[in-house]
Structures are given as structure tokens and as C-alpha cells.
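One record is kept unedited as follows:
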Amino acid sequence: MKVPGGPARIVRESSRLLVFLAAVLLSSSIAFGRSVKVGEPAPDFHATTFDGRELSLADFKGRVLLINLWATWCAPCREELPLLDAYYVLAKKHGLEVIAVATEHSVPASDLKELAAAAHIPFIRRLKGPYDILKGVPTNYVIDRNGIVRYAKAKAFTLDDLNELLVPLLQEPPPKVSSPPDQPDPPSGSPPSHEP
């Protein structure tokens, strides 16, 4: 069978297809920003909890966020998860947030409902974004109050690790929320004016 336009047409069509595929791949990486890098602004994500809440990075603004990727078959993960849950209970009032994401190679989500209901930290059913497993599980990411990635490693935390990393971050003041341009900040120590 003869192809209309011959080999030259096949090359042109193949080139167009490659350009299209490259554009699709580039746009999908732009949709969630770039990869996660320590010392750089944290890329956005979209998550759905087991109780149906929709979360994104913006929901944690001004707080320290620990994203934990774990698996049910992973022994270090099963030791780390109760530690993270207990640490969260103690440090939440100081600005700590923790979310736990079971990997797709864990048990089905329906089997995790009971554990998710018993935990204090939100369990994530779906996570969309660039927060991937790094060399194994557990993988942990820590984002500071200013939205900067401060930690990204495949390693289970110990209590000492958590204290060493999180206590200094929790002691940092939350970022100042600026007033809109037409409403200047009140002078320090003065109550705001309520004039019409």
C-alpha cells in the first residue's frame, strides 16, 4: 500500500505529533509548577481527605506543614505514623499541620477508613501534585510558615528528628499579613480607628 505524500509526509506528521506530545507534557508540569526542591517555594497540590474535604497548599498558609507518604506494608511507616499523630496533637497549637498520604501500593482506601477515623491527622485519599515518593517510603516533606520547602527525604522520623527539624520552624513567627493599600496598619500599641 502506498502512503499519500510518501515518507516525507510520515516524517512531517511524526514531527507534529512529537511537538504536540512535548507541549502536553510541558503544560502538565506547568499546571502544578515544578518539582519539589528544598529551599524553594513549595509547589501547590490538591488533596481530598477521607472525610471528603478538599485541601490545597493555600489552606496551610502561615503554618508548618509535614506531608507524610507512607505504605501499609512498610514497617518503618507503621512505627512513624503513631509518632506523627501524637506529635501533631501536641504541636498543633503551635502551628503544625500534618497530612498522611497512603501510597497507591497500600491496601484499598476502603480498608483505611477505620484508621483514618481514629487518627488526629488528616488522611489523604487522593493527592495531585509533585509530591512523590523519593527512593522509598516513608517520604516526608516539610514546608515552613512562609511556604518554603525545608525538608524532603525518604526517611522515617524519630522523636529527636522531629524536634530538631520542627521546633525551630514552629518558633518562627507567622508571616505578617499586610493590610490592603487603602487601609494602613494602625500604629503599634494603638487600637484601630472605627471612623466612618
Q: What stands out?
A: The first helix runs from residue 6 to 31. Residues 102 and 108 are 10 Å apart (CA to CA). DSSP finds four helices and seven strands in the chain. The helical segments are 6-31, 75-91, 109-118, 159-171.
